[in-house]
Write a structure and sequence with these properties.
Elements: H1 2-13, E1 29-38, H2 39-47, H3 50-55, E2 66-78, E3 81-92, E4 106-118, E5 126-139, E6 142-158, E7 161-172, E8 180-190, E9 212-220, E10 231-235, E11 241-245, E12 251-257, E13 262-268, E14 271-272, E15 276-278, E16 289-296, E17 301-309, E18 314-315, E19 320-325, E20 331-335, E21 342-347, E22 352-358, E23 362-364, E24 366-370, E25 381-390, E26 396-399, H4 418-428, E27 433-439, H5 446-466, E28 474-478, H6 491-497, E29 499-505
Parallel strand pairs: 9-16, 17-25, 27-28
Antiparallel strand pairs: 1-2, 1-8, 2-3, 3-4, 4-5, 5-6, 6-7, 7-8, 9-12, 10-11, 10-13, 13-14, 13-15, 17-18, 17-21, 19-20, 19-22, 22-24, 23-25, 26-29, 27-29
Length: about 500
């Protein structure tokens, strides 16, 4: 094999070739090559598996393969696609699919036509390519057809000569041929020239240059989602600077921008986006708009929330939002939009957070949110709804998330999440006084229910005092089953009647 390659290289170096500019398409080119047919390895793969052949090194050595010679004709039909016609001849013991061979050397004639799909044009020194086509073989009077599929590498030594190598797997289409590997290396020289079209005389086109609109789109780099609220800056000549914010679709608009060189950048969450330079030549177009794309890389998650007034079922603005990282005890403060009640902030990965709202005469839910288990490559926004209720003087609010042991006044603090909500409300509204009301269903005697409702109200008061709430601000009152809000004849109704209510006092 080394001798053959050396002969090929020596033959090329002795060619008297004149250098010239490579053509876009390969001109007519004639090649001479040597090849090796490998029937045994293909047969081993078919009868066992590729893994078995590789693991046990059952492939055929080069010296054991069938050798032959052939010629190729190349012609470019596109700048990256060549037509190839090949004729091969060899003396071989043909290995058939059933494992039989002819038993003596007989002449094998192969001819095929294929297309080489090149990764680069012929202007490059090294050009990898893949190939596929159709072929016909003639052996001992038997004609068969096959499909050659492979890959190769073309090395342009001079402008008019090249070395090429190729490996193929030839799939049998008829029973008279068998699958096999085909390896080849050869040299080729150009025998024809591409026709050069005379240069067309083109009258110069007057370039249109005028003011243009600019649309800047900003996308999250990890997810590809459009980013709203990005501050986009357009920096021009003489320190001129224009700013705009992206809308819900991640687009910022600049109108009637005069032709010049500009730098475009974005800023969100104190993190810069990618930048892009716009040259004055970009304005030399008939289009009225220049489109620009930027990307933004923030490893944090974006929390998008909205505060809902549950009393009126509308968004609530000007609510102070506190977001606490439960592990680090770091606190972020935000405020809901005055009209739409929305708020937004950034959350660290692999963390748990607690959120609540604060507004005078309102009681807020306490909400838990987590970024643990979330992938930043798939998730950008974490959405939640924070509920608040009016708590004005004389108003009563049912606390649905307070639970007691059955038939007892002992509070199950592990599941009674409204206890924390109540503590936070009293700490945020230091002048507010509450009456804690206990209610039961009608199961059991009136005397026992009255006593149980009072005891449960007292338990809530005791819990609040232990949390630092002044006992003079809270009182307890049990109503037993006297004020039902649902039908006591049904289990669902009785469940609603067993409740804790807070009433805002003067």
């Amino acid at each position: 094999m080394k001798k053959i390659i050396s002969i090929i290289v020596l033959g090329i170096l002795t060619l008297q070739l004149a250098a010239q500019v490579p053509q876009e398409r390969k001109p007519s080119t004639l090649a001479f090559h040597v090849f090796y047919n490998d029937f045994n390895t293909a047969q081993q793969i078919k009868t066992s598996s590729l893994n078995t052949v590789l693991n046990n090194r059952l492939w055929t050595k080069i010296g054991e393969m069938q050798t032959g010679f052939g010629i190729n004709y190349f012609k470019g039909i596109r700048n990256k696609i060549d037509f190839v016609a090949t004729i091969d001849g060899s003396w071989t013991d043909y290995l058939y699919e059933d494992g039989s061979t002819n038993g003596s050397n007989q002449f094998l004639l192969d001819a095929n036509a294929a297309l080489n799909f090149k990764m680069l044009t012929d202007k490059h020194t090294l050009v990898p390519y893949i190939s596929s086509g159709v072929g016909v073989s003639l052996y001992q009077g038997k004609t068969g057809f096959y499909v050659p599929v492979g890959a190769g590498l073309q090395f342009n030594v001079f402008n008019e000569a090249l070395i090429f190598t190729n490996i193929q797997y030839r799939y049998a289409l008829t029973s008279t041929v068998n699958d096999h590997f085909y390896y080849t290396v050869g040299i080729a020289v150009i025998i024809g020239k591409n026709k050069v079209k005379p240069a067309e005389i083109v009258e110069p086109v007057k370039k249109e240059i005028s003011n243009k609109n600019m649309v800047v789109s900003v996308y999250d780099e990890a997810t590809g989602l459009p980013l709203p609220n990005v501050e986009v800056s357009l920096a021009g000549p003489d320190n001129q600077k224009l700013n705009a914010f992206t809308n819900a679709s991640g687009k910022a608009f600049f109108t009637s921008i005069s032709p010049s060189d500009y730098g475009v950048s974005g800023l969100l969450n104190q993190i810069n986006s990618s930048t892009q330079n716009i040259e004055k030549s970009a304005f030399e177009t008939k289009e009225n708009q220049i489109n620009i794309s930027l990307t933004h890389n923030d490893p944090q998650f974006t929390l998008k929330g909205v505060v809902i007034n549950k009393t009126q079922n509308i968004p609530e603005g000007n609510v102070a939002i506190t977001i606490t990282n439960d592990a680090k005890q770091t606190i972020i403060s935000e405020q809901s939009h005055s009209e739409y009640g929305i708020f937004q902030t950034q959350l660290e990965a692999e963390s748990d957070f607690t959120l609540f709202g604060k507004k005078a005469s309102y009681i807020s839910n306490i909400v838990k949110v987590s970024t643990k288990g979330l992938s930043r490559s798939a998730t950008l926004f974490v959405n939640l709804e924070l509920d608040i209720e009016e708590a004005k003087v004389g108003q009563s609010i049912v606390l649905n998330q307070i639970y007691f042991e059955v038939g007892k006044a002992t509070v199950d603090t592990a599941f009674s999440t409204d206890l924390d909500k109540l503590v936070q409300f009293l700490k945020d509204n230091t002048e507010t006084k509450l009456e804690i009301q206990g209610h039961t269903d009608n199961t059991g005697s009136l005397k026992l229910n009255n006593k149980l409702s009072q005891s449960r109200a007292n338990s809530i008061v005791d819990y609040l005092v232990k949390q630092g709430i002044d006992s003079r601000r809270i009182s307890a009152k049990g109503f037993g089953p006297s004020l039902p809000i649902a039908d006591n004849s049904k289990s669902e109704g009785r469940s609603k009647n067993r409740r804790v209510v807070i009433k805002v006092m003067q």
